[in-house]
Amino acid sequence: MKKIILLGATGSIGIQTADIIREHPEAFSLVGLSAGRNMEKTRELIQEFQPEIVCVQLAEDAQKLQHEFKGILFVHGNKGLIDASTYEADVLVNAVIGSVGLEPTLEAIKLGRTIAIANKETLVTAGHLVMQSAKKYGADILPVDSEHSALFQALNGEKIEQASRLILTASGGSFRDKTRDELAGVTVEDALNHPNWSMGSKITIDSATMLNKGLEVIEAHVLFDFAYDDIDVLLHRESIIHSMVEFQDTSVMAQLGTPDMRVPIQYALSYPDRLPRPAAKRLDLAEIAQLNFKAMDYERFRALKLAFDAGREGGTMTTVLNAANEQAVAMFLNRQIGFLQIEEFIERAMLGHKTIASPDLETILAADSETRKTVENMLK
Ligand code: NDP
Ligand code: MG
């Protein structure tokens, strides 16, 4: 029985992680969870799973819950997130959104805890700190993101130094059939309408700008230690091949499946075992009949190019890329800026930043908050 702590339990990945835990009561138990502000969902999760520790964002919510549920430890805010992530367990699932997930992850790693990581912003903003620390403390970092789970599975049992290329697939997001000119007037609603995946709003916008794939390229570089020249992105609109690894003998291993995040989530929880999923839809290639591929167009999807640039630059530049994007996407969702301004603001933030190489945590946190302010000021 694996004891699980789930950060971001009320989000899209969090709810699907809860589905997996519910499907396998013999294998997993949810001992702790964190939520942001969605108290309705938090109450439901507490009633169903009876965890030992719960973190919410606001102190007043923690207080209210403490009155309702006796015998559960309630904590709050960023400090509470660390209390929850370091609570006694086997696996920490990090499914919060944004770089707020960084410090809780680093603290759990210090305890040698296995980390199932969905929270890609953490790996983009400070991947070197996470991986160095994981090595030092012997903590396993298991990918939840479908592309990285695919790469991880394709590399299983292989010698990583004999792999020559990582090929990440990209569905293209909500606007894949639009030209750049057609992007100028798109609305928040249009952007939130993803063709293949149902996800939280921030990552759905990231998919539309293609910055999500850019964050994933950096995430792949961090997790598998591949040079950026050896990471490719391929447009594949059906989202059936989740990614591929090419080996030095030109053989290519692909991982396939229906677009269902519960598969990679479950694999990260059950690893190195696999568990059945009797209720899940199985892949039927005869029914799908056709898979399509197309070379990535870096002019059309400029945000992806910016991510490669930031990754190659390294140091604090990936922190700036991530923070600028988080700020700009929030502004787009608040209808303060247009869709194309997201990548414009990211590019301006990157141009204005002088990279610091091998940054420590303090330097990263400073670059992150400075960038958010810089991007906010771009509105004025
Ligand atoms: P959601 O927006 O759906 O959920 C985010 C979760 O984080 C919620 O539980 C939310 O709480 C909580 N949260 C938000 N802000 C804070 C904060 N400041 N402090 C503490 N908790 C906070 O996101 P997703 O589930 O879509 O994504 C989670 C992560 O997984 C992201 O990094 C994303 O890139 C990655 N990912 C997601 C995929 C998907 O299919 N959704 C696929 C692959 C990766 P509340 O809602 O209660 O306020
Ligand atoms: Mg992904």
Automatic annotation (TrEMBL):
Mn(2+) binds at D145, E147, E216. Residues 141-224 form the 1-deoxy-D-xylulose 5-phosphate reductoisomerase C-terminal domain. Its cofactor is Mg(2+); Mn(2+). Residues 4-127 form the 1-deoxy-D-xylulose 5-phosphate reductoisomerase N-terminal domain. GO terms for molecular function: 1-deoxy-D-xylulose-5-phosphate reductoisomerase activity; isomerase activity; manganese ion binding; NADPH binding. Its EC number is 1.1.1.267. Residues 256-373 form the DXP reductoisomerase C-terminal domain. It comes from the Bacteria. 1-deoxy-D-xylulose 5-phosphate binds at K120, S146, E147, S171, H194, S207, N212, K213, E216. Pathway: Isoprenoid biosynthesis; isopentenyl diphosphate biosynthesis via DXP pathway; isopentenyl diphosphate from 1-deoxy-D-xylulose 5-phosphate: step 1/6. NADPH binds at T10, G11, S12, I13, G36, R37, N38, N119, E121, G200. GO terms for biological process: isopentenyl diphosphate biosynthetic process, methylerythritol 4-phosphate pathway involved in terpenoid biosynthetic process. The keyword Metal-binding applies. Keywords: Isomerase, Isoprene biosynthesis, Magnesium, Manganese, Metal-binding, NADP, Oxidoreductase. InterPro entries: DXP_reductoisomerase, DXP_reductoisomerase_C, DXP_reductoisomerase_N, DXPR_C, DXPR_C_sf, NAD(P)-bd_dom_sf. It is an enzyme of class 1 (oxidoreductase). It catalyses: 2-C-methyl-D-erythritol 4-phosphate + NADP(+) = 1-deoxy-D-xylulose 5-phosphate + NADPH + H(+). Belongs to the DXR family. Catalyzes the NADPH-dependent rearrangement and reduction of 1-deoxy-D-xylulose-5-phosphate (DXP) to 2-C-methyl-D-erythritol 4-phosphate (MEP). This is 1-deoxy-D-xylulose 5-phosphate reductoisomerase. The gene is dxr.
